[in-house]
Write a structure and sequence with these properties.
It is a single chain. The chain is an alpha+beta fold and 340 residues long. The protein folds into 3 domains: 2-51 and 133-217, Probable tRNA modification gtpase trme, domain 1 (Gyrase A, domain 2), CATH 3.30.1360.120; 53-131, Aminomethyltransferase beta-barrel domains (Alpha-Beta Plaits, 2-Layer Sandwich); 260-333, Aminomethyltransferase beta-barrel domains (Elongation Factor Tu (Ef-tu), domain 3, Beta Barrel). It has 8 helices and 20 strands. It has helices spanning 7-12, 32-41, 61-68, 116-124, 146-150, 189-199, 208-217, 251-256, and strands at 2-3, 16-20, 23-28, 44-47, 52-57, 81-87, 93-103, 106-111, 128-131, 136-142, 164-167, 170-173, 182-188, 204-206, 261-268, 279-282, 285-296, 301-309, 318-323, 326-333. The chain has a 6-stranded mixed sheet. A 6-stranded antiparallel barrel has the order 15-18-17-16-19-20. Strands 6-7-8-5-9 form a 5-stranded antiparallel sheet, covered by helices on one side.
């Protein structure tokens, strides 16, 4: 089990820890609800150094990376970030990643912590790969006040959504996993620890608990829940990140797979929290299953992402969530549940 270089800082802040993807990480500092509200109303600070940080480079790197991913890299230019999906031979999702174009021959990739070794192994078959995960800290400053606060340290006021700037060995991108305005910061460890401490003077520290609630409110997928090696981008409702005008690994198999269920949203009508694995029913008959669920402090009700049979996948469709022996009323809704 590993911990990030910010472990001692978290300890002094009184964090309650959990294990995640081989790391000891802060679950919460005060309460999940307080931390979620801080991000929605002002600003929160997350240590996400457990994520994978990879550099790929070479003369044919763009063409090879283009084949390995579903989105079109021709949309990128230096200074732009792109959300993308790495697929396997069957059209399932190896991982969802963000790609930073440094130059025509150099790309920086952020991947999920649980998939880092798998992603590196996969990319290494085609590309020259350098693992930078142990050389950089990664943290996220998220919320409506994030630009105001970060501008005291870096010139980011003109940085647009899904763009990035480099400051020496530091990369700042206007990206995040909360649905709020915010930034992700990749920075050498010593400088990063100092900056994290400085940002704590104005930002509330937030843990994985709040991060999960925020990403569900925003309708963002999580590997192992909404996406996996057995789930295609189409089933995961990520069609907008799939360019069918280009060739990519697993494309034909993805298109051949029968589409029976597709990801959608759900909001509780009755009191109750929908949890992963709970069945979604219509008049007592199963029509879907919940992949992620939580109580939303922003909406003050239970919400969920769920895979639902296509004929029933309709806005405002009244359904029930089976919680043990009870059927609780809910309705199907498109997401995001919370919009900034």
């Amino acid at each position: 089990m590993k911990w990030t270089p910010l472990y001692e800082v978290h300890k002094k802040l009184g964090a309650r820890f959990t294990t995640f993807a081989g790391f000891i990480m802060p679950l919460q500092y005060t309460s999940v609800i307080e931390e979620v509200k801080a991000v929605r109303q002002r600003v929160g600070l997350f240590d996400i150094s457990h994520m994978g940080r990879i550099l790929v480079k070479g003369k044919e790197v763009k063409e090879k990376l283009q084949y390995l991913t579903t989105n079109n890299l021709n949309k990128l230019k230096p200074g732009k970030v792109q959300y993308n999906l790495l697929t396997n031979e069957k059209g399932g999702i190896k991982d969802d990643i963000t790609i930073y174009m440094l130059s025509e021959e150099e790309f920086f990739i952020c991947c999920n912590a649980a998939n880092k070794e798998k992603v590196i192994s996969h990319l290494s078959k085609y590309l020259r790969v350098e693992d930078l995960s142990d050389k950089l800290l990664q943290f996220a400053l998220q919320g409506p006040k994030s630009e105001e606060i970060l501008s005291k340290y870096y010139d980011v006021k003109d940085l647009k959504f899904y763009r990035f700037k480099t400051f020496g060995n530091t990369i700042l991108s206007r990206t995040g996993y909360t649905g709020e305005d915010g930034f992700e910061i990749y920075i050498p460890i010593k400088e990063g620890i100092e900056l994290f401490k400085e940002l704590l003077k104005e930002a509330k520290p937030c843990g994985l608990g709040a991060r999960d609630v925020l990403r569900i409110e925003a309708g963002f997928p999580l590997y192992g829940h909404e996406i996996s090696e057995d789930i295609t981008p189409i089933e995961a409702n990520l069609d907008r990140f799939v360019d069918l005008n280009k060739d990519f690994l697993g494309k034909e198999e993805m298109l051949k797979k029968p589409l029976k269920r597709k990801l959608f949203g759900l909001v509780m009508i009755d009191r109750g929290i929908p949890r992963e694995g709970y069945l979604v029913c219509k008049e007592g008959k199963e029509i879907g299953v919940i992949s992620s669920g939580t109580f939303s402090p922003t909406l003050n009700k239970g919400i969920a992402l769920c895979f639902v049979e296509l004929p029933e996948r309709k806005e405002n469709n009244l359904v029930e969530v089976k919680v043990r022996d009870k059927f609780l009323k809910a309705e199907l809704k498109s997401y995001p549940f919370v919009k900034r």
